[in-house]
């Protein structure tokens, strides 16, 4: 999915099975941008913002 949609980075099985925080945030931002093109990742308290954003999606 990520490769087909043009994810700008390398994707490995390992990085998908247990991504670092940085990898997770890059993937999350990429996917969320597909839903909301003007999206910009919040810089503060990402650990609180991501659950809120997912909840808002319904």
Automatic annotation (TrEMBL):
InterPro entries noted in UniProt = Kinetochore_Ndc80 (IPR005550), Ndc80_CH (IPR055260), Ndc80_sf (IPR038273)
Its Gene Ontology biological processes?
A: attachment of mitotic spindle microtubules to kinetochore; cell division
In the UniProt record, does the keyword Coiled coil occur? yes
Q: For this UniProt record, give its keywords in alphabetical order, as a comma-separated list.
A: Cell cycle, Cell division, Centromere, Chromosome, Coiled coil, Kinetochore, Mitosis, Nucleus
- Signal peptide per UniProt: none
Q: Does the keyword Cell division apply?
A: yes
Compartments annotated for it: namely: Chromosome, Centromere, Kinetochore; Nucleus
One family from Pfam that matches here is Ndc80_HEC
Residues covered by the Kinetochore protein Ndc80 CH domain: 1-57
Gene Ontology CC annotations of this record? Ndc80 complex; nucleus
Q: Which PANTHER family match?
A: KINETOCHORE PROTEIN NDC80 (PTHR10643), KINETOCHORE PROTEIN NDC80 HOMOLOG (PTHR10643:SF2)
Subunit note: Component of the NDC80 complex.
Name listed for the protein in its UniProt record = Kinetochore protein NDC80
